[in-house]
Every structure is written in structure tokens, then in C-alpha cells.
Amino acid sequence: MIHYKKALIKLKENKIKIKSEIISVENSLNRISSFDLNSPNNYPAANNTAFDGFAISSKETNKINSKKSIKFKIIKTLAAGDNPKIKKISKYSTIEVMTGAVIKKPFDTVIPIEQIKFFPNSIKPKYIIINNKIKKNNFVRFLGSDFKKGERIIKKGEIINSQHILAFKTLGVKKILVKKRPKIVFYTTGNEISNNSKIPNWKVRNSNSYYLKSFLQNLPFDFVEKKILRDNDLTKFKKEIKINLKSNTDLIITSGAVSAGKFDFVPKIINSFKLKYYFKGAYIRPGKPIMFAKFKKNKAFFGLPGNPISSAACFRFFVLPFLYFSIGTKENKPLISKIKNQLIKKKNFTRFIKGKLSFSKNGIVEFEVHKDQESFRIKSFTKSNAWGLFSNKKGKFKKGDFIECYTPTGIN
Q1: What is the dihedral of CA 339, 282, 183, 209, to 10 degrees?
Q2: pLDDT for 361-383, tens place per residue?
Q3: Domains within the chain, CATH numbers bracketed
Q4: Closest among 129, 151, 182 to 299, alpha carbons compared
Q5: What is the pLDDT of residues 212-231, one digit of tens each?
Q6: 24 has which bridge partners?
Q7: I need a surface site. Which of 141, 153, 296, 324 has the fewest CB within 10 A?
Q8: Residue 252's beta-bridge partner residues?
Q9: Cα 208 to Cα 206: distance, rounded to the nearest angstrom
Q10: How far apart are CA 397 and CA 147, in angstroms?
Q11: Taking Cα atoms as reference points, which of 169, 152, 151, 149 lies closest to residue 28?
Q12: What is the overall mean pLDDT for the chain?
């Protein structure tokens, strides 16, 4: 058996190589950027106004005071999207500007509409009257003040979200290089598993595949569920492995049939293939029987235990990190949280505990250990929003001790 931290090192060493592809930014949500992407343009693309008002040259107000006012002639009205070119601009001229209108020299400052005095009247104005000195650059949004040309938009290995897509479209990015979506093929095993809604009490409804499918829905992976493998399907399983090794499948996962029982055939079949690396069993709870194999080809295998919570925990703490290693993204750092109730466990084993993260009145992150941690119990899982990792270094954790806590997906 292998300790959890050692297993993570081995998973990183045996990650699979995932190629990249160019896609349109419209289809890039939840994909992983394959390189640092920099802005091809300045944004804003030109100086423009942040308010509706009138643009003037600030220099022409230097000698103005309360006793000496000057009339500025209105020569044009510009809205956002209008061509800002003006052929002839006389001294003491002004242009009416709407929010977003481009401002070009000699105009360099904006007076908001609420502060304007018109002449001869506000119905048909020809001039505005200014009776005080106006500072340069008032209410002006400057060229490149948000994004400068060449400035990074997204880092290599970062997951693309809707905010990035907004930036891509604003800055004129049409295509982006992303990691291909690793293809995951999943097999549930066991004579007891049924896809029927009505079952006798000696059967178990298939839930693990539905959990993983929904879990992965907003992550950059493709999930393909195959037919249930029964206890006597050894030959069929071996044939399926051969097919997957010749296909575009990247990762094969099974649920169940990895323990030491009479019908736990998965380890025997996997070991009949040429493997680069293999481990079976880990010092963890739940999920002790977990197994991993890296084939000689650029493909890998995970055997998850059949109990729902064991399967979920092993996927979260073994499969998901392995996938993140392979596509070149990083998990968020765990939240260091104070536990609200004690936990006693077997020393030398790492425990993955269902629980709830919250904040105290003082802003401290706290973790409540739920009751009913057995691997067959799902009720406490429905009330959880995080996993607590209780280290193998000790067996008793007191109220107030600090532990690492992990969100379900590990990335935002």
C-alpha cells in the first residue's frame, strides 16, 4: 500500500500528455489555456469620455476666473462610435460628447453636462460659458488604461471562465490554443448494480456513474459511460481495455471489483497488460482498495471502490489531481480551517471527511465534521460543501485544531 502524499507524487510523475488544439473563444468556456495569452490591442483603443458633457482644451481656461468668463463655441456633437475627426478647430471651441465618445487633441478634458451653462439658452445653445479654470484629463478614460497591448490576459494552465471570454471579445481575440478535453471512459462493475428505478432489496441502484458525470459537467473533461460489467465479465473487460488502448481514450476508470473478493477481477486483468507504473491500495479512509496503473502507452487507469463515498473521495483526491497534472493546471491551495468538533481515527491513515465549511464571527474558516462517515452513507454527503483532510501523522484531532480543507472541484 501507498501513503496519500507519496501517491500524489507518483501520479504527477506518471501523468499523461494531453495535446492542444485551436478553438474559437466562443467555445472556450471551462477549457485550459495552453499558453500565456497577451492582449493584441490597447483597451480603451483611444482616449474617450467617461461622462456625457462637453470636451474642451484645458489650456484655454488658464486665465479664466470668476470675474472673467469665456464663451466656447459648440462645433460638433459626438456619440460613442462616431468618427472623431474634425477638419478645422478654432480657438475656444468645444464639442458635445456622449459617454464613450473618442476625444482627440486639442481637447483633453470633459465638463459633465450637469455643470454646463449654455448661451444664449439651453434649448438652442450655440456656446457654453466657462467661468473657472478647468483641470486637464477630467472624466477621460485613457488609451490602454485597462489593457495595454502585450499585457497578459490569461496564464498558461488557467481555466477559462466567462470573464475571460468577455475580455477576449473586447480585445479582439478570435482564437485560442487550449488543451484538448481528456476522454474518460467509465465502467461500473458488479452483479448487484442496476439501472432500474424499481429494484429488489438485493440489488443496488447505479449512482456512481451519474455522480461523476454530473461532477465533471463543468470541468474540461469528456466523460463516456459504458455498460455495466458483471462478475463473470473478465474476458469482456480485457477486450474493452484493448479497444481503449487503441482508441483516443486517455483515462479508463472502473468502480468496484478492486478489493480482494472472489469476484474482484479488475486488478488481475489490468496486471495482464504491460504497465509503466502500478499501485494497489492506500493508507486512506474511505477508499483503501484504490488502484492506479500507467500503461506503456500514453494512457492510464484508476480502479475506484464501489461504495458511493469511497468512489467519490478517491475520484476527488486521486483522479482529479491526476487529471489536473495532465492538463497543466493547478488546484487552489487548501483552506486551513479550524475544526468545530473532535475526530478520532486510526493513526497512519489519511482520512477524507465529509463536512461543512463556514466562517466564524471573527472571520475564521471553520470545518464541521459530519456524523455518519461510513462509506455507504450518503445523507451526510448531501449536507457537505467540502472535504476535510485529516493527516496520517496523528490519530486524535481536538476541537480547535487546524486541518486542510478542500472544495469539491479544487479550482474556481
Answers
A1: -70
A2: 999 999 999 998 988 899 999 99
A3: 4-19+180-327 (3.40.980.10), 24-44+145-178 (3.90.105.10), 48-141 (2.170.190.11), 335-406 (2.40.340.10)
A4: 182
A5: 999 999 999 999 999 999 98
A6: 175
A7: 296
A8: 185, 301
A9: 6
A10: 49
A11: 169
A12: 94
Mean of pLDDT values over 238-245 = 96
- Whether 78 has a pLDDT exceeding 90, the answer reads yes
Compare 281 and 204 and report the one with higher pLDDT: 281
Residue with cell 493513526: 347
Q: Which three cell numbers stand for residue 217?
A: 459537467
Provide the residue type at 402 as one letter.
F
Of 400, 279, 288, the closest CA to residue 350 belongs to 288
Enclosing H/E stretch for 354: strand 350-359
Q: Does the pLDDT value for residue 126 go beyond 90? A: yes
Residue type, 184: I
Q: How far apart are CA 352 and CA 95, in angstroms?
A: 66
Phi, psi dihedral angles at 213 (to 5 degrees): -60, -45
Question: Element (H or E) spanning 246, and its range?
Answer: none
Give kind and range of the element (H or E) at residue 119.
strand 117-119
Q: Are the C-beta atoms of residues 206 and 75 closer than 8 Å to each other?
A: no
121-129 average pLDDT score: 94
Give the global pTM. Answer: 0.88
The amino acid at residue 115 is: Q
121-147 exposure pattern, b = at least 16 Cβ within 10 A, e = fewer: eeeebebbebeeebeeebbbbebbeeb
pLDDT class of 263 with cuts at 50, 70, 90: low
d(C-alpha 396, C-alpha 191), whole Å: 39
Q: What is the pLDDT of residue 194?
A: 86
Q: What angle do CA 180, 185, 189 make, to 5 degrees?
A: 165
Instruction: Give the list of residues 6+ apart from residue 47 with CB closer than 8 angstroms, or none.
Output: 102, 103, 104, 140, 141, 142, 143
Alpha-carbon gap, residue 7 to 350, rounded angstroms: 12
| Peptide bond connecting 289 to the previous residue in cis, omega within 30 degrees of 0 | no
**Residues 6 or more apart whose Cβ sits within 8 Å of residue 210:** none
CB 40 within 8 A of CB 131: no
DSSP secondary structure string for all residues of 173-227: --EEEEE---EEEEEEB-TTEE--SS--TT-EE--HHHHHHHHTTTTT-EEEE-P
Contact 84, 145 (CB under 8 A): no
